[in-house]
Design brief:
A hairpin with a 6-residue loop joins strand 2 and strand 3. About 35% of the residues lie in helices and about 35% in strands. The longest helix has 19 residues. The chain is built from three helices and four strands, in the order E-H-E-E-H-H-E. It has about 100 residues and is an alpha+beta fold. The protein has one domain: Alpha-Beta Plaits (2-Layer Sandwich), CATH 3.30.70.100.
């Protein structure tokens, strides 16, 4: 399983609102893809100009197919008008998943 964790910092909350419809469509379409286990965006409660991205994919083939989808191209094009101050994404290869015990 592959896990992607991303952080996007935008200029203002208004920029989040500009991106909201595109994010909503992207999340819905991505979660319907074969090999997608989870695809989610969330707004940071401590800093509403930060958007967090969490993705889980069955394997590299599923992720590669995701990057080639029309909805990915539409989403990227839609971000052209959003003022992004910075973005980081990290890919993790997880061979084992289990509950966290406290």
């Amino acid at each position: 399983m592959l896990i992607i964790i991303g952080v996007v910092k935008v200029e203002s909350v208004a920029e989040v609102e500009k991106a909201r419809a595109g994010i909503t469509a992207m999340v819905k379409a991505s979660n319907a893809e074969p090999g997608c286990i989870l695809y989610a965006f969330s707004q940071d409660l401590g800093d509403p100009t930060i958007i967090r991205i969490t993705e889980k994919w069955k394997d590299q083939a599923a992720l590669d197919a995701h990057f080639a989808t029309p909805h990915m191209a539409t989403f990227i094009a839609g971000l052209a008008d959003v003022k992004i101050d910075g973005m980081t994404t990290k890919l993790y290869d997880a061979s084992n998943e289990r509950p966290v015990r406290g």
